[in-house]
DNA sequence: ATAGGGTTAG
C-alpha cells in the first residue's frame, strides 16, 4: 500500500516538479552562456573537495550512493530526496568526480539515469569524466554513445574548446588517448570532418595513438579528396595496424570518381600486404565497371580475382550478372547464374530480381515472369522488391486492378509498400489517364508517412501535364522544391514532354528557351523531347534547326535524336532521305541504329506499301544482331495484313511468343482489325479470347474495332449485344464505340436506336461536340429522313449546343431539298444571328440545290451586314471569288450581290429590301452570274459569268468564272 | 563501407 502511494506521489511529483530537465538545477548558467555567446564557452573546472560540513548536499548523496549502491539509491525514498534537491552544475560535477575513483560503475549508472529519467543535459566535464571511466573499462560502445550525445549538443566547430578542456583537465588520466581517439571518430561519423581533423592534429602533437577505425572513417568521409592520400601516408608512417576496410575504402573512393584504372593499380600495389586485394575491393571495382557500361572489364576482373586466389562471392556474381543484364547479354547472364551454382554460391532473391529486370529491359515480359516464378518455386520468399516486380509486370500490360490487389496482399503479409512500389502504381494510373486516381493514391501514400521522391513527383507532374492540368503540375513542382527535392533532367523533361504531348509547342519552346538561358539544356534528352514534339506536329524545319543547334553547341546527339528526325522525315514522305540519314549521319557520330530506328523506317515502308524494303530492313537487323521488339513485329504484322497474308500474320504472332516477346494490345488490335476487314469476325473474336487468355486487357480500341466489325460485316444485333454486355461489365469504352454503333443505326434507318445510344453517350459524360450531332444529321439527311433530322437538330439545340457552319449547311440543304422554304429562311436568319456564313457553297461548282440555296442565304447575309456594319465588303471578301474581291478592293463600292437564280433573287430582294427595283437587272444576264452593284447609284458595276462571258465585262473575267 | 525494384525519347 505504501509503495503504491509512493509511486503515485513520485509520478505526480515528477510531472509537477520536473517538466523540464533544467528544473533540477537552480543554476543553469552553462546553457544560457552558450546561447548568448558565439564563442565556444571554455570551462576551466576546478573541483573542490567535499566539504566536511554536514550541510553540503553533495557529501550525503555521494555517501548514500557509495554505501547503498546505485540500485538501492534509486529506490523511491532516495529518489524523492534527490528530486527535492536543487543542485548546480559544479555540484553534479563534484559528485561524478568523487565517484569515478571509488565507485566508477555507479558513476556511469547515475550519469545514464539522470539523462534518461530527467532528460538531464550533462556538462562537458561530467561527460568526459564518465567517458574516461568507460574507456578504462573498455566499454567502447557506451563511450561512443556518450560522446555522440555530447557532440549532438555541441555541434560543429566545438573541437577547439573540447580539446582544450580534455587536454587541460584530463591530460594525465590513463585513458586520454582512447577518449581522444573516440572523440575524433565520433566527430568524423557525425560528419564534422574539420573537427575530427582538429582532434587528430592535437593527438599528433601529444603523440597519442589514432586507431585504424578513426582513420577509416575519415578516409571514407574524405574519399573524394586528395587528403586521403596524406592520411594513408600517415597510417603507413605510424605503422598503424590496418584493417580489411582500409584498402576497400580507398578503392571505393577512386571508383566513385570513376578512376577505375587507378583503383586497379592501387589494388595491385597492396598485394602481399596483410590486407591486400580483397573480394570486397574487387567487387567495388567490378560494380563501378558495370555502372560505366564495361561488363567485359568486370569479367576480366573475375579472372584477376582467381589469380590472387580469391573466390567470387554472391556479391561478385550478382554485380556481374547485373552488368550483363543491363548490357542486354541475357544469355551470358544466365550462364554466369549456372556458373555461380557450380561454384557453390546459391542464387538468391537478388539474383532473380536482377535477371527479371534484364528480361524486363528487353521487353521480354514472359521471361521476367518465368524468373520470378522460378524463384518462388525454389522456396525463396517474395520481398518488397519481388512484389514490386510483380506489380510492375501487371501494370506494364495495363492491369492496374491486379497491381492494386497485390498491394492489398502485401499489406496483409506485413510488407509495407515504399515510394518505389507506389511509383509503379502511380505511373500505371497516369499512363491510363487516371490522373485523379493517381493523385488520390499519392495522398494516401503521404498519409501513410511515405515521402515522395524525385521519381514519384516526376511521374505525377508528367501525368498532369499530359492531361493539360498544368496548374496542378506547377503546384506539385513547387511542393517538391519546398521539400528540398530539386528537379533533375527527368523532372524538367516531364514538364516539357507534357507540353509537347499536348501539342502546346509554343509554350514548350518558351520553357525550353528559359532552360537554355539558365544553361540547363546541356542534356540531350531535353533537345530530343523538343525535336520529337516538333516532328509530331509536322514541323520538321524547326526540328532540323534544333539539330543544328545541338551540333553547334557540341552536344553529342543520341540515337533517339536521330530516331525522331528519321520519324519526321518519314512522316513528310521523305523515306529515302530518312534512309540516307540512317546510313550517313548516325554512323558519322559513331552511333548504332537501334531497334527503334529500324522500326520507324519499317513502318514508313509499310505505310508506302513497300513490303520488299520492309523485309530487307528486317533482314538487315537480324544480320546486325539488333533484336526486333514487339513493336517491330507489330509493324511487320501490319504489313502482312495489308497484303492480306492473314495466316502469315498469325504465324508471326506465334513466333513472337516463341521468341519470348509479348505482343501488346496494339499487336492484337492490328491483327483483329485485319480479320474484321476480311469479314472473318469469328477469328477476330477468337483473337480477342486469346488476349484474355494471355491476361492482356483489351483496350477500348479493341472493342471499337470489334463493334465496327460487327456493324459493317456482321449482325448489327450482335454489335448491340456486345455493347450492352460491355456496359454491364463496366468495361471502359471510348466515345468511338458509341459513335460507331450510332452511325450503323442511322445507316439502317433505325433512328430510335440511334437516339437511345446518343443519350447513353451523353449520360456517360463523354465530351460531345457539334460534329457528333452533325454526323448523325448528315446521315439522316442523306437517307432523306428530313423530319428525323430536324428533330435531332432540335435535340441538339435543347442540349445547349449552338449550331455551326457545317451543320447549318447540311440541315439547310435538307430542308431546301424537301421544299420547305420557310424553314430554310428561318434557319438562315438563325445563322446570321450566330454570325455564321455559308461560305463553302460559294466555291462549289454546279447548279446544285445547295448552291442555289447558298446564293440566297448570301443575299440575306449581305443585307444584314449592310445594315450592321460600315464596311460589309471587308467582311464579305473572303467569301467572294477572287476577281470579285479585286474589283471590290479597287473601287469604293459598298454593295455586292451574288446570285444565280433570278426568280429566287427577286423573291429575296423583295422580301428584304422591299422597294428594290429588280427591273434594273436583265433576266438573261442573271444565270450563273455574279453581279456587282453600286449601292447609291444602283448601277451595275461588274459582272462575272460562268459560261459565256458578257462582252461588256470580258476584261474583268476570271479564269474560273 | 561492395549487389536488386520505379519515372524519360519510337
UniProtKB/TrEMBL annotation:
<feature type="repeat" description="PPR">
    <location>
        <begin position="313"/>
        <end position="347"/>
    </location>
</feature>
<feature type="repeat" description="PPR">
    <location>
        <begin position="699"/>
        <end position="733"/>
    </location>
</feature>
<dbReference type="InterPro" id="IPR002885">
    <property type="entry name" value="PPR_rpt"/>
</dbReference>
<feature type="repeat" description="PPR">
    <location>
        <begin position="453"/>
        <end position="487"/>
    </location>
</feature>
<feature type="repeat" description="PPR">
    <location>
        <begin position="348"/>
        <end position="382"/>
    </location>
</feature>
<feature type="repeat" description="PPR">
    <location>
        <begin position="769"/>
        <end position="803"/>
    </location>
</feature>
<feature type="repeat" description="PPR">
    <location>
        <begin position="594"/>
        <end position="628"/>
    </location>
</feature>
<keyword id="KW-0812">Transmembrane</keyword>
<feature type="repeat" description="PPR">
    <location>
        <begin position="558"/>
        <end position="593"/>
    </location>
</feature>
<feature type="repeat" description="PPR">
    <location>
        <begin position="523"/>
        <end position="557"/>
    </location>
</feature>
<feature type="repeat" description="PPR">
    <location>
        <begin position="278"/>
        <end position="312"/>
    </location>
</feature>
<feature type="repeat" description="PPR">
    <location>
        <begin position="383"/>
        <end position="417"/>
    </location>
</feature>
<keyword id="KW-0472">Membrane</keyword>
<feature type="repeat" description="PPR">
    <location>
        <begin position="734"/>
        <end position="768"/>
    </location>
</feature>
<feature type="repeat" description="PPR">
    <location>
        <begin position="418"/>
        <end position="452"/>
    </location>
</feature>
<dbReference type="Pfam" id="PF01535">
    <property type="entry name" value="PPR"/>
</dbReference>
<keyword id="KW-0677">Repeat</keyword>
<dbReference type="InterPro" id="IPR011990">
    <property type="entry name" value="TPR-like_helical_dom_sf"/>
</dbReference>
<feature type="repeat" description="PPR">
    <location>
        <begin position="664"/>
        <end position="698"/>
    </location>
</feature>
<protein>
    <recommendedName>
        <fullName>Pentatricopeptide repeat-containing protein</fullName>
    </recommendedName>
</protein>
<feature type="repeat" description="PPR">
    <location>
        <begin position="629"/>
        <end position="663"/>
    </location>
</feature>
<keyword id="KW-1133">Transmembrane helix</keyword>
<feature type="transmembrane region" description="Helical">
    <location>
        <begin position="893"/>
        <end position="916"/>
    </location>
</feature>
<dbReference type="Pfam" id="PF13041">
    <property type="entry name" value="PPR_2"/>
</dbReference>
